[in-house]
């Protein structure tokens, strides 16, 4: 089979491509959120879509996160496929009632009478100097809620393919994009591609250690893999891509191959999603582990503003490199 | 009591009796015998709002309700056996035993369901109404809530959104005077509740919620207007909650005398009966026959529900997610 024709595009373009393709394919797909229409989204992910699909299907809302999310639930219950944007994932706290109490529960509580096919897109993450209220990584909150699916793409190809799957899914999906990552470029097939939710991808094959990373931290991990390779350490880099559902099989198979597990994520380590990955592997692949797993995440602090402090808190390439070296040579100091 | 045709009045009368006897069964039999779990929120005294409002709507209009929603469900024509079975936690319940008293729903009747998070259903109503607009349909959405919900952010965000986008949401405020224990005068900065609508440029009405015909005529007029010119409407029905907030509420915040003398003196079912007898729509004997027949209907629904099987505990694991496209996805990673 011929290799797919590829285009080098940014995360924002990949997301926009997915939205455009799905809106063309299915007239039930509608978008709304703060500044998404005329302005095209504060990160430009929806630029031009109102012009292309009209003001009925692409709508600017007031600053009303409760109403945006609740309205998405109602429209989904009525058979539409709303994609609601919440401008910063921190503001999902306002929208949480609709997402957590209504979207996630309506099918179950009704004994399966209803389905809730909606996507909530929201920029997460730090690294751009927005400080503590505009920089959090809250994926663990939503992974803890039965009824939700949670996606955090790390490269444009995954962003496009997974967003398309999320829109087609008959369940509520929280789709978290990294705000400092919208301009990150990567190859995306020119042809349509839908990537299934719940399937991890091995981004780099390796033999010494399984490194799990997602969202923007994946790009740091990709660099770390190169640095470690020069030091003679062969890293298998796994991106779960969707955190809920989590591809436990691929994860455990990788650890069975390497015998070591490290997880790198930008969120606070304590009660972060890395803890769930550690638990899954220790429960299902304990015998594969040669050493205790390692979590590389943020210390238990809100994200500071000033650049040196922010970079100190967010795990960087060097943190991943040092963490894995320590894991393999036995000098690790544990999660910070 | 407003005038209307006899058949309609009798239809309303039957539905109000169904709600009354259904909830009295919960209070008088299910509660003492501990036949339900958690709590149940009775709408005794509020039957006229449920029946008058719901019957003024079309069958394809959506209704979204609150924790105090048995009446709305019955007025929507939900099967009382399935409702009892649900409250009993049986497999044949309308939600297969997953919802209980606070989460009754029936998709086939566009009864989207009860939403017991106060204020939370108002934004959902906007989404349901947006769907109707996008479909070019003149369907409406009725969103019920108590006066306590007026103070939530969700209600206020939804009201603004609905007005801004001309969404056909009928916001129905059932002002039963108490948000659990807090009286409306201690929760609302203004007591002219209908004026809350002004902030959003939507029209507000306030009517008695004890006269079913007044409720019906009010909503019928509003619905007609909303179908012709899609826009949200806000209506307050003043009503009384005869019972406590829920079945275990000792009601320390109000006196028995107040409930008996003030509230029960305005019983919407007695009011309707008196009006129908005065109008010679029915005789006293006929009202007794109606009561007997409806009570028997409720008894039989309850008895059948009691016979229903319990769910297999493992059914708890079913129905969290709708089957998604990835279920069919090949492991090669691309669908």
Bin the strand percentage of chain B: 5-15%
Can you write the helix and strand succession of chain B as a string? HHEHHEHEHEEEHEHEHHH
What class would the helix/strand composition of chain B place it in? alpha/beta
Shape annotation of chain B: globular
Number of strands of chain A: 14
Residues in helix, % of chain B? 40-55%
Order of helices and strands of chain A: EHEHEHEHHEHEHEEEEHEEHEHEHH
Structural class by sheet pairing and helices of chain A = alpha/beta
Q: Residue ranges of chain A: pLDDT <50 for 5 or more in a row?
A: none
Largest interface: A-B, 58 and 54 residues
Distance between the termini of chain B: 63 Å
Largest sheet of chain B: 6 strands, parallel
Mean pLDDT of chain A: 96
Tally of separate helices of chain A: 12
In total, the number of strands of chain B is 8
Q: What oligomeric arrangement do these chains adopt?
A: heterodimer
Strand order of the largest sheet of chain B: 2-1-3-4-8-7
Radius of gyration of chain B over alpha carbons?
Answer: 20 Å
Main sheet attributes: strand count, strand direction, barrel closure of chain A: 7 strands, mixed
Distance between termini of chain A?
Answer: 47 Å
Account of the protein in words:
The complex is a heterodimer of chains A (336) and B (335). In chain A, strands 3-2-4-5-7-6-12 form a seven-stranded mixed beta sheet, sandwiched between helices. Chain A has a five-stranded mixed beta sheet with strand order 9-11-10-13-14, with helices on both faces. In chain A, strands 1-8 form a two-stranded antiparallel sheet. The termini of chain A are far apart. The longest helix of chain A has 15 residues, at 11-25. With 336 residues, chain A is of the alpha/beta class. Chain A has helices at 11-25, 49-53, 65-77, 92-103, 106-109, 139-143, 156-168, 216-230, 248-258, 273-284, 307-313, 317-329, and strands at 6-10, 29-33, 58-60, 81-85, 119-124, 149-151, 173-178, 185-189, 201-204, 209-213, 235-239, 242-244, 261-268, 294-298. Chain A contains twelve helices and 14 strands. In chain B, a hairpin with a 2-residue loop joins strand 5 (178-179) and strand 6 (182-183). The interface between A and B is large, with 58 and 54 residues.
């Amino acid at each position: 089979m011929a290799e797919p024709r590829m285009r080098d595009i940014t995360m924002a373009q990949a997301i926009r491509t997915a939205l455009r393709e799905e809106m063309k394919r299915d007239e039930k797909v509608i978008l709304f959120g703060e500044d998404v229409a005329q302005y095209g989204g504060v990160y430009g992910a929806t630029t031009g879509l109102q012009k292309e699909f009209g003001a009925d299907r692409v709508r600017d809302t007031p600053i009303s996160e409760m109403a945006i999310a609740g309205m998405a639930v109602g429209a989904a219950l009525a058979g539409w496929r709303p994609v609601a944007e919440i401008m910063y994932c921190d503001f999902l706290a306002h929208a949480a009632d609709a997402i957590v109490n209504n979207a996630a529960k309506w099918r179950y509580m009704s004994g399966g009478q209803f389905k809730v096919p909606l996507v909530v897109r929201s920029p997460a993450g730090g690294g751009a100097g927005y400080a503590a209220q505009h920089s959090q990584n809250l994926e663990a909150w939503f992974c803890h809620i039965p009824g939700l699916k949670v996606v955090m793409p790390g490269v444009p190809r995954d962003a496009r393919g997974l967003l398309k799957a999320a829109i087609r899914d008959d369940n509520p999906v929280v789709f978290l994009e990294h705000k400092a990552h919208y301009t990150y470029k990567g190859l995306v097939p020119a042809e349509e591609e839908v990537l299934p939710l719940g399937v991890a991808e091995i981004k780099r094959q390796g033999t010494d250690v399984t490194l799990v990373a997602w969202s923007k931290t994946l790009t740091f991990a990709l660099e770390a893999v190169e640095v470690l390779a020069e030091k003679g350490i062969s890293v298998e880099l796994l991106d779960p891509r969707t955190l809920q559902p989590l591809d436990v099989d691929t994860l455990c198979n990788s650890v069975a191959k390497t015998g070591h597990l490290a997880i790198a994520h930008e969120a606070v380590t304590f009660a972060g999603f890395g803890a769930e990955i550690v638990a899954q592997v220790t429960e299902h692949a304990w015998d594969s582990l040669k050493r205790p797993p390692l979590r590389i995440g943020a210390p238990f602090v809100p994200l500071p503003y000033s650049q040196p402090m922010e970079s100190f808190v967010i795990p960087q390439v060097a943190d991943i490199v040092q963490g894995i070296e320590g894991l393999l040579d036995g000098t690790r100091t544990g999660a910070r | 009591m407003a005038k209307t045709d006899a058949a309609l009045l009798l239809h309303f009368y039957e539905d109000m009796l169904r709600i009354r006897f259904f909830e009295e069964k919960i209070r008088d039999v299910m509660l003492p015998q501990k036949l339900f779990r958690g709590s149940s929120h009775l709408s005794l005294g509020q039957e006229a709002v449920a029946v008058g409002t719901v019957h003024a709507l079309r069958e394809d209009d959506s209704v979204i309700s609150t924790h105090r929603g048995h009446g709305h469900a019955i007025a929507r024509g939900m099967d009382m056996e399935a409702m009892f079975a649900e409250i009993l936690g049986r497999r044949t319940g309308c939600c297969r035993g997953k919802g209980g008293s606070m989460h009754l729903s029936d998709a086939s009747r566009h009864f989207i369901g009860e939403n017991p998070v106060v204020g939370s259903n108002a934004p959902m109503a906007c989404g349901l109404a947006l769907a109707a607009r996008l479909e070019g349909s003149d369907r409406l959405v009725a969103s019920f809530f108590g006066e306590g919900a007026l103070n939530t952010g969700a209600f206020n965000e939804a009201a603004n959104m609905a007005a801004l986008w001309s969404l056909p949401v009928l916001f129905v405020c059932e002002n039963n005077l108490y948000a659990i224990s807090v009286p409306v005068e201690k929760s609302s900065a203004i007591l002219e509740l209908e004026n809350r609508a002004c902030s959003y440029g939507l029209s507000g009405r306030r009517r008695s919620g004890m006269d079913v015909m007044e409720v019906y005529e009010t909503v019928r007029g509003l619905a007609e207007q909303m179908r012709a010119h899609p826009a949200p409407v806000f209506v307050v029905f003043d009503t009384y909650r005869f019972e406590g907030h829920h079945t275990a509420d000792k009601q320390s915040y109000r006196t028995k005398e107040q409930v008996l003398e003030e509230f029960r003196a305005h019983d919407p079912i007695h009011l309707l009966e008196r009006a129908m007898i005065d109008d010679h729509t029915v005789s006293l004997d006929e009202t007794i026959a109606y009561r007997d027949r409806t009570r028997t209907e409720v008894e039989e629904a309850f008895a059948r529900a009691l016979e229903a099987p319990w769910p297999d505990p493992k059914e708890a694991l079913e129905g969290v997610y709708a089957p998604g496209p990835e279920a069919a996805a090949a492991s090669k990673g691309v669908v």
